[in-house]
Design brief:
Elements: E1 17-19, E2 41-44, E3 49-50, E4 56-61, E5 67-72, E6 75-81, E7 87-92, E8 98-106, E9 109-118, E10 121-129, H1 135-142, H2 152-156, E11 160-165, E12 168-169, E13 183-184, H3 190-194, E14 200-202, H4 213-225, E15 229-231, E16 233-234, H5 237-240, E17 244-248, E18 251-259, E19 274-275, H6 280-290, E20 296-302, H7 313-325, E21 329-333, E22 341-342, E23 349-351, E24 356-358, E25 367-376, E26 379-391, E27 394-397
Parallel strand pairs: 3-9, 10-11, 10-24, 11-14, 12-13, 14-15, 18-20, 20-21, 21-23
Antiparallel strand pairs: 1-7, 2-4, 4-7, 5-6, 5-8, 8-9, 10-25, 16-19, 17-18, 22-23, 25-26, 26-27
Helix pairs in contact: 6-7
Length: 400
């Protein structure tokens, strides 16, 4: 899908390697001599790109029981003995970014096996997106792409993009009895995917059920129809707690969403639609289950106190539960101000509050950012905040 590189590849270096033997040696069998050997072929060459830590596989045919070696940039990285019919398969796990040119050799014969670029998967994450208040009328006047004019190219360049959809998307239902209620039309979602490149939206917050449970289900369907996945809400508690899994560069990334800001009637139950309530035991269970299907887990929370950038004890407990269960990235929203980014370990990250993004803002709330994260199979390789400022409700990247 769409993407351009966001991180420069580093020079190739030593990489972890393993090998597998696909067939047993028969008694007394000997490798063929070079001058009488069967052709050495490659039937599954590697091309394109992979994330660091994602295995590369090369297979083909050689002589029966012949030793086959895989080399990356001239260095041996894996070896295997072909089976009785000559079939071999080699597995190589590159640990560092770089361009790897692969060849296989056997008894002096050499065949090219492709070239692969190893680089981190780029994840971009942003905070609150709403179609409520003055955003809705502006969309009618200027079109659904209007909020994304200044930031779409940057977001679209990432491999995976996620944000917090803090609004109902439906024409049904009545407004809940609360201070603020937000909603907008399904057409407003289309440029999030086609223009700004969003892949996943979390609906775990205190506004997606503003117009009732039917409107919430409409929102889920509308996001899916626009080409994106949802987390944090669904037809029942099981669906709300289910992960969205996105693959990029061979890396499978699982996303989970939870809300700790829960108006009455917003939470999903075993039989009713709603949002996923933040609960440490459930979070730990969900993360471990997601990691049986994915390489990296990311949790997105709606939590904290409005206009307070510093995390409180509850936020720290939820983040700790995610990390203890194996998640590598924890994202937060709700305070409407941009907060700090913590690195609990060399390969994990917590962004306590990503602030507003497409949201009516002024003063300190108008300061925002795109969180730019580089991921490998072992977690976070690098991260930075790309600063931006909200003009009315439209984010614009800072100059320089």
């Amino acid at each position: 899908m769409r993407r351009r590189l966001a991180f420069a590849a580093l020079p190739p270096a030593a990489a972890a390697a393993t090998f597998v033997v696909l067939a047993f040696r028969t008694t007394g069998a000997q490798p063929l001599a070079a001058e009488t050997a069967a052709p050495l072929t490659v039937t599954s060459a590697e091309t394109g790109w992979r994330a660091p830590g994602v295995p590369l596989a090369v297979g083909g045919f050689a002589g029966a029981h012949e030793r086959v070696v895989l080399r990356a940039n001239g260095s041996p990285v894996a070896a295997a003995t072909a089976g009785a019919l000559g079939c071999y398969r080699l597995r190589f796990v590159p640990a560092r970014p770089g361009r790897y040119r692969l060849v296989v050799s056997a008894s002096g014969r050499v065949s090219r096996a492709g070239s692969v670029l190893v680089r981190p998967v780029v994840l971009d994450a942003v905070g609150d997106i709403t179609f409520g208040e003055q955003v809705g009328p502006a969309l009618v006047e200027h079109g659904a792409s209007y909020p994304w004019t200044f930031v779409a190219p940057t977001l679209r360049a990432a491999d995976i993009t996620i944000g917090n959809l803090e609004t109902a998307v439906s024409t049904r239902g009545s407004a809940a009895v609360k201070q603020y209620t937000f909603r907008g039309p399904p057409t407003a979602l289309v440029p999030l995917h086609t223009l700004a490149g969003f892949d996943v939206l979390t609906l775990a917050n205190n506004h997606t059920v503003d117009f009732g449970r039917d409107a919430l289900l409409d929102s889920v369907r509308a996001v899916h129809a626009a080409g994106m996945q949802t987390i944090g809400a669904g037809a029942d508690e099981s669906a709300a707690r289910s992960p969205a899994i996105v693959e990029a560069g061979g890396l499978r990334v699982a996303f989970l969403g939870y809300s700790d800001i829960n108006p009455l009637g917003f939470n999903a139950t075993s039989t009713e639609p709603g949002t996923a309530r933040a609960d440490t035991a459930a979070i730990e269970h969900d993360v471990r289950a997601a990691l049986r299907r994915a390489d990296v887990a990311v949790c997105f929370f709606h939590w904290g106190v409005e206009l307070h950038a510093q995390p409180d004890a509850r936020q720290q407990a939820f983040a700790g539960a995610c990390l203890a269960a194996g998640a590598r990235v924890v994202l937060g929203a709700h305070p409407h101000v941009l907060g700090g980014v913590s690195r609990p370990t060399a390969r994990s990250l917590v962004a306590w509050t990503l602030g507003n993004f497409v949201f009516p803002s002024s003063g300190v709330a108008a300061r925002t950012a795109i969180l730019h994260v580089a991921l490998g199979a072992d977690g976070v390789r690098a991260a930075r905040l790309i600063p931006a400022r909200i003009e009315g409700f439209r984010p614009r990247l800072d100059a320089g």
